[in-house]
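Usage

Read records sequentially. Each one opens with the input sequence:
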Amino acid sequence: MVGPWQWIIIVFAILLLFGGKKLPELMKGLGTGLKEFKNATKSDDDEEAEKEKK
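and closes with the structure output:
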């Protein structure tokens, strides 16, 4: 299990690799990707539920 010190080191390494300016863009892209994935899986579930009703 990852402890608090490991998280601090991971965040510090990410900041060193990508820099402070690039990090918000990466997080925005990650958030958009997750949102699209959730919407896609939700629409698939809705389609399957409609097929089962018929």
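Summary fields computed downstream for this record:
- The mean pLDDT is 85.
- The CA atoms of residues 6 and 50 lie 46 Å apart.
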